[in-house]
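ERR on first pass: missing label on line 2. Operator R.T. fixed the label and resubmitted. Corrected input:
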Amino acid sequence: MAQNEIQITRPDDLHLHVRTGDALKSVVPDTARQFARAIIMPNLETPVTSVEQAGKYRQEILDAVPEGIDFEPLMTLYLTDNTSVETIKAAKDSGFIHGLKLYPAGATTNSDAGVTDVRNVYDVLETMQLVDLPLLVHGEVTDPVVDVFDRERLFIKEILAPLIERLPKLRIVMEHITTSDAVDFVMSASDKIAATITAHHLLMNRNAIFTGGVRPHHYCLPILKREEHRQALVKAATSGNPKFFLGTDSAPHAQGAKESDCGCAGMYTAYNAMELYTEVFDLNNSLGKLEGFASTYGAAFYHLPQSTDSITLQRQDWKIPASLPLGQEKVIPLRAGESCHWTLTNK
Ligand code: DOR
Ligand code: ZN
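pass 2 clean. output:
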C-alpha cells in the first residue's frame, strides 16, 4: 500500500536566496515554516563581502522570521578578487559564517563582483582549507562562446578538478548540480566534495523552458538540462549517498523582471519546497531516503548538529496560488495555479 504520510527531522535548505528589504520580509517566512536552517547566498546588489555586512544581513533575516518559529540563517560571504586572508580568518572566528561563495564573474545574477580568475584567490582558498571553512561553488564557465548547456561540464574539467588537486582538503559544495557529469565527478571525488540538488532540476528537464512557448519562470542558472541528466540527478538524490543533499536555490524575482525581454534567472520554490522534493522521492519509490537527503547529510557536511524538531507531510493535493507577494510586487511560485500532491501538515 502506498505510504500516505511521512515524518522527518526538520530539514535544512543548504542553498537559498532571500534578497533584502521588503522582498526578504515576504520570502523568509516561507522557508522558516519548513526548514530549521538555510545557507544564505550573499549575491545581493551590494554583495555581502565582510563579516560586518553578514552580521547585519543575518539580523535582518532573523527579524523577518515569524513569531514562534525557530529558524537559523547560516551566513556566507561573497568571494571577490580582493577578498583578504584576514577576512577568511574573521569569518571563521565569527561562528555564524559557514562558507564562502565563488561566483565566476558574470556567471549569474549579481555576479559581476565575482572572481575573474580562480588563480587570483588561491591564497584565500588555502587559508579556507587551513581553517576548514567550506567553499560553495557556482560551477559554470563564463566564456560567452561556450554553449550554455555545456558550461557546468567544462567548469568541472577546467576549473574544479585542478582546484581540488591543488587543495585536496578544502571542503567544497558544488551547488545546484544539473548534469550526469557533475554526479559522476562528485561520486568519484573524496569525501571533502559534496553537491546540492534543487527541486526544479529533479522535476523538470529543458523541455519545460519551451512548453507551448517560452516559459520565463522555468529559466534558471545553471539552465535545465536534457532528461538523461535529470534522471541522473534523481538517482543521486534518492540513492542515500551522503554527498548529495538538499539546496533549493529558491531565487525570487519580481514577476516583471522574469516576464521581460531579458528575463532574470531563478525560480521561486521556497513556498512549496518540501512538498516538491517529497513528490520526487515518492515518484521514485524512495520516501525512505528523503530524510537523509533533506535533514541529515547536509548538516553533517557542514559540521552542524541535526535539528531535534520534525515536520510531517501528507499525501494530499493542494493548489499553489497564481502569485505571491514580493514586497510591493509579485513573485510567481513554481507550479503556480497547479497542484502539489503532498502537503506539509504543521505549517
Ligand atoms: O537561477 C539562478 N538565480 N541562479 C543563480 O545562480 C542565481 C540565482 C539568483 O540569485 O537569482
Ligand atoms: Zn543560487
